[in-house]
Specification:
Layout lengths: L1 H17 L7 H13 L4 H9 L11 H22 L4 H16 L4 H6 L24
Helix pairs in contact: 2-3, 2-4, 4-5
C-alpha cells in the first residue's frame, strides 16, 4: 500500500514538472499567514494575489470543488494564525464556520469569489481587532 502511494505521488510530481506547474512557495504562503497574525493591512491584497495566482494544488477535477477545498484549507490556517495574533478563539472558530458555510452555498466558480463567504471574504477576516469587531463587515 505504501509503495503504491509513493508511486502515485512520484507520478503526480512528474506530471507537475512536465506541465511546468509549481505550488506556491512555502515562504510566500507563510508571509500571508504572518500578515494575518500581525493584523497587517497588506494581508487582504497579498492573500488575494496568492489565491488567484494559479499556483494552488489540484485537489479536485471539478473547478468549484477544487476552489472550495482550497478555501477550507486556507481558512483553517488563517484562523489559527488569527488566534495566535490575539483574536478570540471562539470568535475565530465560529467565523470560520460561517465563512465555510457561505462558501458551501456557492454553485459556480464566479460566485465563489464574490458571494458572502466566497474567495474575497476571508481576505478581510482579521482586521487586527482582538475581539474581531471587523470580522463580519461586508
Amino acid at each position: 500500500m505504501r509503495r503504491k502511494v509513493k508511486e502515485q505521488v512520484s507520478h503526480m510530481e512528474f506530471l507537475n514538472r512536465e506541465n511546468d506547474f509549481r505550488h506556491t512557495d512555502y515562504e510566500e504562503e507563510m508571509r500571508v499567514y504572518r500578515y494575518v497574525r500581525d493584523g497587517d493591512p497588506r494581508a487582504p491584497e497579498e492573500a488575494r494575489r496568492r489565491f488567484t495566482a494559479g499556483r494552488q494544488g489540484h485537489l479536485s477535477d471539478d473547478p468549484l470543488t477544487n476552489m472550495k477545498y482550497l478555501f477550507v484549507a486556507s481558512m483553517t490556517l488563517i484562523i489559527r494564525f488569527a488566534i495566535t495574533g490575539g483574536m478570540n478563539s471562539e470568535t475565530a472558530y465560529t467565523s470560520s464556520d460561517y465563512y465555510i458555510q457561505q462558501m458551501d452555498k456557492c454553485n459556480r466558480c464566479g460566485s465563489a469569489g464574490s458571494a458572502p463567504g466566497g474567495g474575497g471574504v476571508f481576505y478581510r477576516l482579521y482586521g487586527g481587532s482582538e475581539e474581531g469587531e471587523d470580522l463580519l463587515e461586508d
